[in-house]
Amino acid sequence: MTTASSSKRIDPILPGSVIGVLGSGQLGRMFAIAARRMGYRVHTLSPDIDTPTGQIADREVTSSYDDLDVVRYFARGVSVITFEFENVPAAAADAAAEYAPVRPAGRVLHTTQHRLREKTFLRDNGFPVTAFRAVRNEADLRAAAEQLKLPAILKTAGFGYDGKGQSRLATIDDGLAALREFSGDMILEALVDFDREVSVVAARGIDGSFAHWGVIDNTHRNGILDVSFAPAKVTQQVQSRAIEIARAVLEALDVVGVLCVEFFLTKSGDLIINELAPRPHNSGHLTFDASATSQFEQQLRAVCGLPLGSTQLLKPAAMANLPGDLWDCGEPNWSGALAIPNVKLHLYGKQDPRPGRKMGHLTALAETAEEATRL
Ligand code: ATP
Ligand code: MG
């Protein structure tokens, strides 16, 4: 659903302009596909070469995010900067902002790239999160374990994805072992006994307009998202509450762009925020084939100051990730998958199919989400 608001007027960045993307993975790739379709040019900056985004972009700049002179040079050549990766250092976002608008703003990244800052922000703004404590050393860990009770989950505060940098602690000895492995700021989180995990991917325009794709149901395997489907099988009340929370989060952070709120849905029907992603999200990939406007086109519209598009779900859909493990016995059987007419294949152009690496995804469209999931 999309709602408009008309407080601020800023001249839009129109087709033909160059959009700068910091980061170069599959999220940037699908953003670049959407942007090029609408007549924009795309430049991407990351430390890598021949990247999923770079293969589609007009220009691929290879540099460390810490080389602020290159970041400034990059920003001079574009009309707006956005992200596909939230772990870009704040200094890089600030340097880019000297030459081009950065959307969402660097402070959104700063908050959401660090689990402790993110959870503290959410708690202090009255959003539901699980109990947590900051952990930097053994004494903190012992005190936190005493207060929250084990089992609990210890996570590194920065740079976690796909369940990396996390350890489930049954005993304090598990915690001491994890401390030897992890470094820097950490967070101990009380375990949530959830019934399922759901997400809301939403967008906010420069004028405060808001759009969302409803509630998406997510199943994880080995800490990595496996299958998502929409619409999620949740009550109308959960649906409304999740969307209300997502809207409030985008407003509290003053997001311009796309942000995903990952939730736990408890057995008693309560929603608890797990984490935020200040960019398109894996659970929203199905919007590429199933919605009037995908999360990637919406990010483009939002950061360019254009009206947000309709987020209507044209068909129930399911998305399955394709991890590198599927390549263990050679190239997967694409003909077999594509023999089902309503299945769409997305591959990200990655050369090295390591286990657990997200190589692509399949989207299935059907009359119901259950049927799409079965395909
Ligand atoms: P991703 O990149 O897939 O979003 P991540 O590495 O950022 O993952 P989280 O989303 O924090 O990590 O955790 C990954 C998964 O671990 C969650 O989706 C959930 O299944 C489980 N998990 C994380 N925190 C908790 C918790 N406090 N209680 C119960 N389960 C949890
Ligand atoms: Mg997560």
Characterise this structure.
Helix 1 (26-37) crosses helix 10, helix 2 runs parallel beside helix 3 and helix 3 packs antiparallel against helix 4. The mean pLDDT is 95. Strands 1, 10, 11, 12, 13, 14, 15, 16 and 17 form a 9-stranded antiparallel β-sheet that branches. The protein contains 12 helices and 17 strands. It has helices at 26-37, 68-76, 90-97, 106-112, 115-124, 138-148, 172-181, 236-252, 287-290, 295-304, 334-338, 369-374; strands at 2-3, 18-22, 41-46, 59-62, 80-83, 132-135, 152-156, 166-169, 186-190, 194-204, 210-221, 224-230, 257-266, 271-277, 317-323, 343-347, 358-365. The chain starts with a strand and ends with a helix. It has 375 residues and is α+β, with helices and mostly antiparallel strands. Adenosine-5'-triphosphate (ATP) binds next to strand 12 and strand 14.
SSE topology:
Elements: E1 2-3, E2 18-22, H1 26-37, E3 41-46, E4 59-62, H2 68-76, E5 80-83, H3 90-97, H4 106-112, H5 115-124, E6 132-135, H6 138-148, E7 152-156, E8 166-169, H7 172-181, E9 186-190, E10 194-204, E11 210-221, E12 224-230, H8 236-252, E13 257-266, E14 271-277, H9 287-290, H10 295-304, E15 317-323, H11 334-338, E16 343-347, E17 358-365, H12 369-374
Parallel strand pairs: 2-3, 2-5, 3-4
Antiparallel strand pairs: 1-11, 6-9, 7-8, 7-9, 10-11, 10-13, 11-12, 12-15, 13-14, 15-17, 16-17
The structure holds adenosine-5'-triphosphate (ATP) and magnesium ion.
The site of adenosine-5'-triphosphate has 18 residues, from strand 12 and strand 14.
